[in-house]
Amino acid sequence: MINTSPECRYCNGIGTNTRTRSKHNYFSWRSLIVIKKFIIILSSITILSGQSLPEIFVDGEERDIKIRPNIAGTEVVLLGATPAGQREIIIEVVGPRRNITLQEKRRFLGLWLGLGKINYHNVPSYYNILSSKPLNEISDRETFNKLGLGLENLPLGKAEIINSDLKQRVFNKRLRTEMQNKGQFLENESSVTVRSGPGKVGLFSTEFFLPSNSLQGKYSVRYFTFRDGNLISYTENTIDLKQAGFSRVVWLTANNFPLIYGLLAVILSGLVGWLVSIIFRRLKIS
Predict the structure, then answer these.
(1) Which of 23, 150, 194, 245 is the most exposed place for a label (fewest CB within 10 A)?
(2) pTM of the predicted model, to two decimals?
(3) Nearest-angstrom CA–CA distance, 124 and 219
């Protein structure tokens, strides 16, 4: 179950810094949303009460998230339910894939030059794994390797090494480190809260932050439940991240009508140059 707030505690709204807003108002507003979503989940489970209760229940619908360029980003809240009992939750969020190039710097004639490189194809632009406990307390490495869970097991797509003797695993380690330093590859252990619900239902929730410069597109969300180190159930849904406002119009034009976008860019740059020349002429005259 996914929900977002139009303004988060990290963001600047129009003319207002939300950091200075009352924490009481923020948390009260957000708590109402979380309660509302939990009620929807519990209502859905009540409808299914005549049937066998699913091992994990989340909203299967795709949710749209819009981020305006003038704010830092948005918080995404994920909610769900499982049958009551001792079990652990792992949630994996994977962003749209993109191409990335890493340079290998080598010393040549006393200078450090980027002579070698590796081109990665289809690398996730964002990766976040959230769990109710540290991963090593939920299951073992072999299980996570089979499921492709965790930064160590994240597939980085096809790669093409050019003018370098380094192995791909060396580049892979460097890529993961760089993406972690940029806050694009994350592991948030013990960030999923599991609480008891009414009857034989257990509720879980977590949240994560998407900055405004996040790549637009589909973000896949996978939910796993474990008990005694064994995988019990799995489900998934998607988040569709879009920019709002004028920046979205620019993005859509650039991607769907590149010729028009190019012509407009040339015309705009010409107008700016013309206006600057007029301003400088008037300054010289005065």
Answers:
(1) 23
(2) 0.68
(3) 10
